[in-house]
Design a protein that fits this description.
It is found in: Cell membrane. This protein is α+β, with helices and mostly antiparallel strands. The chain is built from ten helices and twelve strands. It is 52% helix and 16% strand.
Length: 504
């Protein structure tokens, strides 16, 4: 379910979705902006043409009737003038109003001309030209025209206003219908543009995403260790440059890793060869130091001290060579478990007793015979000895060993071995590296009895059993190493490349 949600989230915010949305937005924005410009021009043209035609008809009609208008018209004469103009254009829905001084004549039965604004009335009274204004009446567009009646008294002189003013109100419903049709056409054009835009976006996304997906697959393969993966380079655009850069990087990384692996293999062979070659002379030296140790009581003090030092350092060197040989076997994958069902508590007791630690370590072990498991006895002995020895060397008493297992031995249960000390604990910066080879948590300790490989070997032996090993500091003081081993038998696992490390 979580993977499906992650894929759905990726599809929503992925490059394909963003390209489709971007193309769609650009197409719609282009269509709308083009439509808006076209609409503005078309609307202006339609209204302008209608307005000019109405004003021209109104002026021609008034000019034709002007000679018959007396200088001081009466109410009846104004009514006749209005009636003539309105009747001539009755089919166009003209509403006409005439004023002269205090007289008013209207083609409307109620005589209401509410759309006449004061600005329009003032403009008509000051100039002999027609004045118009577009207004809205309950959402419907209306054209209002004011036209003063003027007489030309003599050639060369401007016409004189007669005082008679005619007003015209006419609805522009047809023009409004044209404007709505233009809007509908623009909306349809935007919708029709959206489909090709999405199609183009999908095609563009496919072209862009193909090398991106190939790059993602190649990156995953490289992360899995396939350093020989390469991308096919097509074209000369930015994606092709990216593919070439990836190929160059992969080739250089492959060369570097190959060289590192070669050097690492050489180093491992060198360690294994040196360790093997040292075993024979060290065996001879150990035999000699054993003889000298027997003669210590008969030697003078200085000679005895020198013999003791040689014997101690020879033993340390032998342990180091043995640890190096063991690590070499892990690296070569030559280690196999020899499983046997044993009493774990009795195995821990034997480990402590064989090294003389039974009086220095507190134990919390189950009764004999109550906790048995399939393990490699020799390697379990190494695990317990390394952890206890590490606690005794670098911790503080009391050192405690606890062995526990689940009651009823359920399927998939684990046996737990804990080794805890009461020392200062391990520095937080050292905890992530505590199982690395030759790692020393205390950098001031340049020499110690251990080889620095004890915890590395311990971690490898636990891993061979299919178990887990971890370390943490207790609240207060002291470090706790916890080993978890499966109670049921696991198939033997060969040691793989990848060393662990040591606290000592």
């Amino acid at each position: 379910m979580r993977a499906a949600l992650a894929r759905a989230r990726l599809a929503l915010v992925g490059l394909r979705s963003r390209l489709v949305v971007a193309f769609a937005l650009v197409a719609v924005a282009s269509a709308l902006s083009t439509g808006a410009l076209a609409f503005r021009e078309a609307r202006t043209g339609v209204l302008q043409q209608s307005q000019d035609a109405v004003i021209k008809q109104f002026r021609d009609n008034v000019d034709a009737l002007a000679p018959g208008i007396p200088a001081d018209p009466s109410q009846e004469e104004l009514d006749g003038l209005v009636s003539q103009v309105a009747r001539t254009h009755q089919s166009q829905g003209w509403h006409v109003l005439a004023t002269y001084g205090g007289l008013r004549a209207s083609s409307l039965s109620q005589g209401a001309f509410d759309l006449l604004t004061p600005e329009l009335r003032r403009s008509v009274g000051t100039r002999p030209n027609a004045v118009f204004q577009r207004v809205s009446d309950h959402g419907y567009p209306m054209l209002v025209v004011g036209l003063p009646v003027a007489y030309r008294t003599s050639p060369g002189l401007p016409p004189a206003l007669s005082g008679v003013v005619l007003y015209l109100e006419v609805a522009q419903s047809t023009e409004q219908a044209y404007v709505k049709a233009i809007i509908t056409a623009i909306e349809h054009a935007a919708l029709w543009a959206l489909g090709p835009a999405v199609l183009l976006a999908l095609l563009a996304a496919r072209g862009v995403l193909r090398p991106v997906r190939a790059l993602r697959r190649a990156t995953r393969q490289m992360a899995e260790g396939h350093l020989d993966v390469r991308l096919a380079v097509r074209g000369s655009d930015e994606l092709a440059d990216l593919s070439r850069s990836f190929n160059d990087t992969a080739a250089e990384l492959e060369r570097s890793v190959t060289e590192l692996r070669r050097l690492e293999a050489q180093a491992r062979r060198f360690v294994a060869d040196v360790s093997h070659e040292l075993r024979t002379p060290l065996a001879a030296m150990s035999a000699v130091t054993d003889v000298l140790d027997e003669e210590l009581p008969s030697l003078d003090r200085e000679t005895a001290d020198a013999v003791g030092l040689v014997s101690e350092e020879t033993g340390r060197l032998i342990r180091l060579v043995d640890d190096l040989m063991e690590i070499s076997r892990f690296d070569a994958g030559a280690v196999r478990l020899h499983l046997d069902e044993i009493d774990l508590a009795e195995s821990v007791r034997r480990t402590l007793a064989s090294r003389g630690w039974q009086h220095r370590v507190e134990t919390r072990l189950p009764a004999p015979g109550t906790l048995r498991a399939q393990v490699d006895p020799r390697r379990l002995d190494v695990v317990v000895a390394n952890l206890v020895g590490n606690a005794l060397r670098h911790g503080a008493p009391p050192v405690t060993v606890r062995l526990g297992g689940p009651e009823g031995r359920p399927e998939g249960a684990w046996v737990v071995i804990e080794v805890a000390d009461s020392g200062p604990g391990i520095a937080a910066a050292a905890l992530p590296h505590i199982f690395e080879r030759f790692y020393k948590a205390d950098t001031t300790r340049t020499r110690s009895e251990s080889s620095g490989l004890g915890l590395a070997i311990t971690a490898e032996n636990v891993r061979l059993h299919g178990g887990r090993l971890r370390v943490e500091n207790r609240v207060g003081a002291g470090a706790v190493f916890t080993v978890e081993l499966p109670l049921r038998r696991h198939s033997p696992v060969a040691a793989a490349d990848g060393p662990a490390g040591g606290r000592s």
